[in-house]
Design goal:
mainly beta; 187 residues; elongated; eight-stranded antiparallel β-barrel; two-stranded antiparallel ribbon; 10 strands; single chain; Porin
């Protein structure tokens, strides 16, 4: 995943909708291999950047088309690099509060956060180069945002994700992503 791929995806999304990018997004994330809202105690940090296209439907409702690039670190389990797209419907409450319901699909590439070794036929061990593992990442969630500022929107969001495949024994692995972020309106 490089910047050119992200920019290409953003361009395609913008062209397809006949819209222009409205927001840039950056968020800090905490990940866990759990069901949603089940664990907040262990810190597995990450960061996510993205771009959004907003489309107002009614006075209190809008659609958001989002593209994100992110990274997270889970000590002793995996490091993950992801690229995902998301559709989110936002209901505007009291003019300044937004309730967001997103659904998304993306690509996740994971790496073991240490060295890997394999056992040779003579019983000795040799270091193995890591290429990582490819996964599909499907997400859904719920979020709240504060829209009281002119160019900035603060938000908190909890996403439930399914990682496929995880291993031969565990094909689907539930993930939870807790995000705290800021969207900056560039128009």
């Amino acid at each position: 995943m490089n910047t050119k791929v992200l920019l290409f995806l953003i361009f395609v999304c913008a062209s397809a909708r006949g819209q222009i990018i409205k927001d840039l997004d950056i968020s800090l994330i905490n990940t866990s291999k759990n069901y949603p809202f089940s664990s907040f105690s262990t810190l597995h940090p990450g960061i996510q950047i993205g771009a959004s296209i907003r489309e107002r439907i009614k006075a209190k409702s809008e659609r958001n088309y989002n593209v994100y690039l992110g990274f997270y670190h889970q000590e002793d389990l995996e490091n993950g690099l992801f690229l995902r797209a998301e559709y989110a419907h936002t209901f505007i409450i009291l003019k300044q509060i937004g309730l967001t319901l997103p659904i998304g699909l993306g690509y996740l590439h994971t790496f073991f956060p240490g060295e890997l070794f394999s056992q040779n036929s003579d019983g000795s061990f040799s270091k193995v180069n890591q290429t990582g593992r490819m996964h599909v990442l499907a997400t859904s969630g719920v979020g709240l945002s504060y829209r009281g500022f002119k160019t900035v929107e603060l938000y908190v969001q909890h996403d439930f994700a399914v990682q496929y495949p995880f291993s031969e024994a565990i094909p689907l692995l539930p993930n939870a992503f807790f995000r705290i972020g800021i969207k900056y309106n560039i128009n």
